[in-house]
TrEMBL record:
Name of the protein: Lipoprotein
Chain segments annotated as transmembrane: none
Annotated InterPro entries: WD40/YVTN_repeat-like_dom_sf
Signal peptide start-end: 1-26
Keywords annotated in UniProt: Signal
Length: 336
């Protein structure tokens, strides 16, 4: 088991994780404390080498996986080409999957009670897959929706390059929350506050949904890639450029941990039943499970994966971990 030094339970923002004043906005001069380069580019997963170690567990044949999720005993795999879903019974993986076409490539799948939210940015559509009946409905958002979550009776949709969040109520008109963002790439409800991930600024921002405002922002390393809420009111962020797992509390927005994770960390999923954060390492074709209950993450599991493991999900009932190959080398299921 590999252990690394960590910055544990920081109580004030770090230099290099600077607070952006709530009254400031995206700037064009050099005084923007959160912009680290003149022309920011979102972090990408490191390119994986060829697989040299047999992947752990079971590998299901599939095309290139763009996203995946596990909900209601169903493994939902989004394929890039043709844009579609493959639905597996998690307890009968040898059975052929159900195939469902999509309007366009799904970039993000998010689990909600009784359904999975499917963001299809190229088509300006968010679809909802209800489970276990496996029916698709759609919401046309326009723009390029990057992710969607359920928030009480509403839905929050991060709108990518539009630099804002759409609030879609069950009834009545939609409203928009914007300001300070370069790109609204993911929205996370921690249970103690909402946070939006901005990959271009490699930062996270607090969001006051009731007031309709984007609040303070903090740097999230050198290349914030993916984010997920844990059981402790925090949002966990992978830093794909610097190689780290970063934890923020949402209210107030404070960096609490920054733990080194070398190897091309990228995808992340969280098992609330076991307090495990699963992250993929694309430079090494590995997936690692960290116990995040303490003052710093503790490595509990490490497994070899399929090539280019950009996507990861977890079944909280059984603890099984699923990994998707963006290189088209299958969908992997591991029982730790």
């Amino acid at each position: 088991m590999r252990r690394f030094a960590a910055v544990s339970w920081i109580t004030i923002p770090l230099a290099g994780a600077l607070v952006l004043s709530g009254c400031s906005s995206a700037k064009t001069d050099n005084s923007d404390e959160l912009q680290i380069v003149a022309n920011p580019v979102a972090a990408k997963p490191a390119v994986s080498p060829a697989v040299t170690v047999k992947p752990a567990g079971q590998v299901l044949a599939s095309g290139a996986v763009s996203a995946l999720a596990v909900a209601e005993g169903t493994l939902v795999v989004a394929l890039a080409q043709p844009p579609s879903l493959q639905l597996y019974d998690l307890n009968a993986l040898a059975s052929a999957p159900v195939n469902m076409p999509l309007y366009g490539k799904a970039e993000k799948l998010t689990v909600a009670p009784g359904r999975v939210e499917i963001a299809e940015p190229a088509q300006g559509v968010v679809q909802q897959l209800s489970l276990p009946d496996r029916k698709l409905t759609e919401t046309k958002t326009g723009g390029q929706p990057a992710s969607s979550i359920v928030y009480g009776a509403d839905r929050l949709v991060a709108m990518g390059a539009a630099k804002d969040i759409q609030v879609l109520p069950a009834t009545g008109p939609a409203r928009t929350i914007g300001g300070q963002l370069y790109s609204a790439d993911d929205v996370v409800d921690t249970g103690k506050g909402v946070v939006v991930l901005d990959r271009l600024r490699t930062a996270v921002f607090s969001v006051d949904v009731a007031a309709g405002t984007v609040g303070e922002g903090l740097r999230a390393g050198d290349g914030a890639a993916n984010a997920v809420a844990d059981s402790y009111g925090r949002v966990l962020v992978t830093d794909a450029r610097a190689g780290a797992l970063i934890a923020f509390t949402a209210s107030p927005l404070i960096m609490r941990q920054r733990y080194p994770v070398p190897g091309g960390v990228y995808g992340i999923a969280y098992d609330a039943q076991r307090s495990l954060a699963w992250v993929t390492l694309t430079e090494r074709n590995e997936v690692v499970g960290f116990d995040v209950r303490g003052g710093e993450p503790v490595e509990k599991y490490r497994f070899p994966t399929v090539r280019q493991p950009d996507s990861v999900g977890v079944d909280e009932k059984s603890g099984r971990v699923v990994i998707g190959s963006a290189a088209g080398e299958g969908t992997q299921v591991i029982q730790p």
